[in-house]
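In this section we walk through a basic example: taking a raw amino acid sequence and producing a predicted 3D structure, encoded as discrete structure tokens. The instruction is simple. Fold the sequence below.
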Amino acid sequence: MERKYSIGEVSKICSIPIKTLRYYDEIGLMVPEFRNQESRYRYYSKRQMVNLFIIRQLRTLGFSLKNIKELFSDLHLKDFGEKINERLEEIDEEIKEMERKKTAALYLRDRIVKGGEILAHSDEDFDSAKGDSLGLINVEYIVKGTLYYRRSIMKKYQNEEVSLERWIDITENCQKNHLSVVSPIIVTYYDNALEQFLCKDCDVEFGVLVERNEKNDQNQGNVQIRPFGGFEAVTKVHVGSYRNIMLSHVRMVQWINQNDYEIVGPISEEFIVSPIDIDNEDEHITKIIIPIKKKKV
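The resulting token sequence is shown next.
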């Protein structure tokens, strides 16, 4: 006589909770083969015990209950192998996605640490009378990277109001297209210097630097890829409220003129710590980047 196993025995032997076994019964994945007509208790066969162990293995590998049910409806060795290969391909994609998430998390951590270091020295570089962050003006080479961006004419653009909708749109598009982001939001103004503060129609680009790969070598939808960097620039770090950033722009343009440089490209702002990172505007950090070259004598 074939031995029958109670739900408690099956749970103990297969290490599957009784609640889970009852759910498998409810959805028809594994219905106990025997029923005692008097007690109405139900029992599993040894074959079902083996199948439950297989189900447990498949669940450990990440198979959905739906896929397992389809597999058990007509289980053959060849089909089983094909399903395992399909799952392996899915696992490879999951690993890639986890690597992208790790890269994003590491980058965010490094950016926040960098912001903290800047804030630690910001008090001595702040002119409270003018509300101006007096961070040093530097000339540096901007390393070339790949920018994932969206550019448009914004009507009556108000620079003091951060365009969160545009920022979120760029961020979500990067996630949708599985791109690893390696920079903060970068806003670039294609009009003449300081015109973004005049509440006029403004040619503005929102973007982020991403890791170069085959997927982002081509334009994707309305969001495009272009090179960013590869030029010499005057830079300055603005700490605090974005509403006061015009003062930093003015000081930089004055410095450029006084030191025999000229502006040779659109001005960008790199939001090292932004409103989508932290709510406290006193801790917002924006790096202004102005492409320049020496004037000809």
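Looking at the output, two observations stand out. Residues 97-294 form a domain with the Multidrug-efflux Transporter 1 Regulator Bmrr; Chain A fold (CATH 3.20.80.10). Confidence is low (pLDDT under 50) at residues 127-134. In the next section we compare this with other chains.
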